[in-house]
Amino acid sequence: ENGSAAAIPIDPRFDIAYVTPVTIGTPPQTLYLDFDTGSSDLWVFSSHTPESQVRGQRIYSPEKSSTAKLLAGHTWSILYGDGSGSLGNVYTDNFTVGGVTVTSQAVQTAQQVSYSFTSQSEIHGLVGLGFSTLNTVFPNGQLTFFDNAKSTLDSPVFTADLKWKKEGTYDFGFIDETKYTGEITYLPVQTDPGYWTFTSSGYAVGDGAFHPASIVGIADTGTSLTYLPAEVVTSYWGQVDGAVDSDYYGGYVFPCSSKLPSFTFGVGPANITIPASYINYAQITEGSPVCFGGLQSSSWLGVNIWGDVALKAAFVVFNGANPPTIGWAKK
Ligand SMILES: N[C@H]1[C@H](O)[C@@H](Sc2ccccc2)[C@@H]2OC[C@H]1O2
Known about the structure:
Elements: E1 3-9, E2 18-24, E3 29-36, E4 42-44, E5 69-79, E6 85-97, E7 100-113, H1 115-118, E8 125-128, H2 145-149, E9 157-163, E10 166-172, E11 185-188, E12 197-205, E13 211-219, E14 226-228, H3 230-237, E15 244-246, E16 251-255, E17 263-267, E18 270-274, H4 276-279, E19 280-283, E20 290-293, E21 295-297, E22 304-306, H5 308-311, E23 315-319, E24 325-329
Parallel strand pairs: 3-8, 4-7, 13-22, 14-21
Antiparallel strand pairs: 1-2, 1-10, 2-3, 2-6, 4-8, 5-6, 6-7, 9-10, 9-23, 11-24, 12-13, 12-17, 15-16, 16-20, 17-18, 19-20, 23-24
Bound molecules: ligand D5V.
């Protein structure tokens, strides 16, 4: 059974993250979760999360679900690239998103969450859509929702159609031709260690020359910005009046009044252009004349990350066939 679900920006001012409604258990409990191709744990705020760490989030209560089963002796603990983290125990239960149901999905219930989760009341947990090898459940790693659902889908794919400051969609099991223009360019995926890792064929700043290059990076719907090699972002921000790489603000900032160029990245023989407006990410604080860039250096990260700022400029196909590939189309 195929499915389709909304990807809703959690903040109307800038696209810090997107959440998608899911139901868990019997009777169904609805939570809004962050679908994250950059990790592979499905975890939720729960009745096991200390009240001091819950601030407005909806919670999953396994004790109220007749189909919940404790996965005895199993625990999990995850640390994310941005330093946030969570840990807890594990149940299996019915899990439905956009009409696609997995009847015995591992649902990881949080017993601890870090402050950055407590402070985001609109995010009630994460659905990892990376490869199941990254799952942190111990002693037996669990399968992602997509890996469990794959065999029931018409095609072993899901697609991301994220949008700038608007609601987009995740589709499961099919490719909606009305959501993109031209052709989809498919690239090989390196599945070790478990991210959707692909190689971009280069970049261009604004209407400038295309620079062929091999940029290995991960497609990560759970990361807000896009992080690329220093030489790439230096050449981009070099075109922006007043842009500086600020230790104080932790990245490239620029006068909000400055004109920004677009940014184009290669996907095989094709390319995707990120409009300048997407790269004018946000004011430092409400009303500030200083703005934070959506394109930042990856040098301190050790990995290039094509986050939402890049993904929302494209229609992206996460093809879970064997071997997996990733498809990019303009829209
Ligand atoms: N794959 C990403 C993940 O989804 C988020 S976890 C997260 C933390 C706080 C708020 C919302 C989400 C974190 O940032 C980058 C990488 O790790």
